[in-house]
Amino acid sequence: MARYDRIIKNGMIIDGTRLPRFKGDIGIKDGVIAEIGHIDPSHGGEVIDADGLVVAPGFVDLHTHYDAQVFWDPYCSISSWHGITSVVIGNCGFGFAPVQVEARERAMLSMTRVEAIPLPAMQEGMPWDWVSFPEFLDSVERTPKAMNILPYMPISPLLIWVMGLEDAKAGRKPTDAEHAEMCRLLDEALDAGACGWSAQRLTPTGPSAVQRDYDGTAMPSDVMHDDTCREFAKVLARRNEGFVQLTMVTGDKEKDRAIFEELAETSGRPIIMNVVQAFDHKPEIHRDTLKWLKSCRDRGIRVVAQGLTTDAGFTFTFENWNLFDDIEAWCEATTGTLEERKAKLADPGRRAALKEKMPRTAVGPLPNVVIVGPRLDKNQQWLDHTLALVAEKTGKHPVDVMLDMAVEEDLKTDFFAAPPGNSLVHLKEIVDDPYVLFGVSDGGAHTKFLTAGRYPTETIVKMVRDNAMISLEEAHWRLSALPAQFAGFQGRGVLSKGAPADIIVYDYENLEVQPDEIVHDMPAGEWRRVQRAKGYRWVLVNGEVTIRDDQQTETYSGRLLRFGTGMPHIHTAAAE
């Protein structure tokens, strides 16, 4: 009988700890790394020849929305295609539990806009064999997975469950009894294996209101009270476990930062702030944020940020676009049915307001948006033109150029908006902070216009190989060990004896992000936009090969990682 199930032989090992790379072998037994060093190949049931290839820990993505997709896509793609072996779901306070049976349709409707997940796909693809959060986790555990899943307790469904939808969305302050019940349910979720809680707190209207409910109103967590956050922080403190993901932009920067610091100090637990992002026209924004984050570290306050480190940009149509919601006129014009939106975008009476405040929060300046998919023959002349260039040639306003074409093409025109930060100088300023977490992939969300799940491949290609911003050792620490340790993925993110065998083997010189493509692989015939990877020779999850030569093996060795381990929880006296 073979001593090891698999041996990865002669690879260049980068173990995720930032120690120098070394050539060696890895022996895997029962899903765990059993040995590292020089191993006789005759001792392996299978030998993977990694000569000339990099062997590293699988990537860990802390910001995804695969809460629905995991039920119809065991690979949680596109993340798995880019070497990600573990993800956290339930981000931003959005999720599907606890949800009453009669509230299921409304819960899915919210996600059609705030995270742009197609309603027919959710209706057909989700089993809805749960009501409570523990039952939801049991359902995730039952479903086949080629990815490890760690769940947050999302706060919006919790607010709705206890207060009712109307009061939760109205921002009424919970009573003491309601706070007590919410905390009981949070305890119940943590007992079942949640890793902490998450919330989005953006202004209901105005500069930061870019992610709203399907009808253009605020999400419940946007209008939740500071005291509610404080009560949830106390739960983590009492248990001495868990962490928090929080997006908070209320228009008062100092107050927002004070809340982050208070929650970190009250809970004694790590707080992930979303996001630190470069705006090329205002670099002082990310520089000020980085300065504040360093001051938190200097004072021993456990606040770190996720950095938007991808330049994936947005390829979108007005069939499903929601990221202009920070401007009321644009939000109003892009909500409703397809026919209602088409009529509003065509309305000359609305154009003045749409021109007065052209969006530039989620994307760069609107005139820089590129027409990448005109549908009518007469519009093909404008392919790959910016709105500004077409406006110059036609004498029209950029907004009229965009909306006239969109309306006459039944809102199917494809536009491309680059992210507002494209400067390598500014990206390096963010990357140079050693504790900024890479990513914000939003995997599973914005499926028709965002492919940010490519960020690990992009990191290695762009930041290491092409621009030498950081070393490969640093990149793997930032992509695997740092997020794993911060978020409580116990034993994952590094290659060491006894660690779960989540391992990637890739061709460094030929690693690539493939071009954008549209695939019709979602339930109910829905389509999505994807970008595949090239160069991942093997991906192993818990010791089993899930990807070989960039192709899925349809092996479902992923686990629901309750408490970060997948093992039963050991209660402490403080938690009882």
Task: Provide a compact summary of the structure.
Helix content is 32%, strand content 21%. The protein has 576 residues and is of the alpha/beta class.
Task: List its traits.
576 residues, 17 helices, alpha/beta, six-stranded parallel beta sheet, TIM Barrel
Description of the structure:
By secondary structure, the protein is an alpha/beta fold. The chain has two domains: 59-313 and 420-498, Alpha-Beta Barrel (TIM Barrel), CATH 3.20.20.140; 328-416, no CATH class. The chain is built from 17 helices and 24 strands. Strands 1, 2, 3, 4, 5, 19, 22, 23 and 24 form a nine-stranded mixed beta sheet that branches. A hairpin with an 8-residue loop joins β1 and β2. α7 runs parallel beside α8, α11 (338-346) packs antiparallel against α14 (398-408) and α13 (387-394) crosses α14. It is globular and about 75 Å long. The model is unreliable at 572-576 (pLDDT under 50).
Q: What's the end-to-end separation, in Å?
A: 45 Å
CATH architecture of the largest domain: Alpha-Beta Barrel
Total discrete domains: 2
Q: Report the portion of residues in β strands.
A: 15-25%
Radius of gyration: 23 Å
Number of strands: 24
Low-confidence stretches: 572-576
Approximate shape: globular
- The CATH topology name of the largest domain reads TIM Barrel
Q: Can you identify the CATH class of the largest domain?
A: Alpha Beta
Q: What is the residue-averaged pLDDT? A: 94
Please give the share of residues in helix.
Answer: 25-40%
Fourth-tier CATH superfamily name of the largest domain? Metal-dependent hydrolases
Instruction: Enumerate how many helices there are, as a single number.
Output: 17
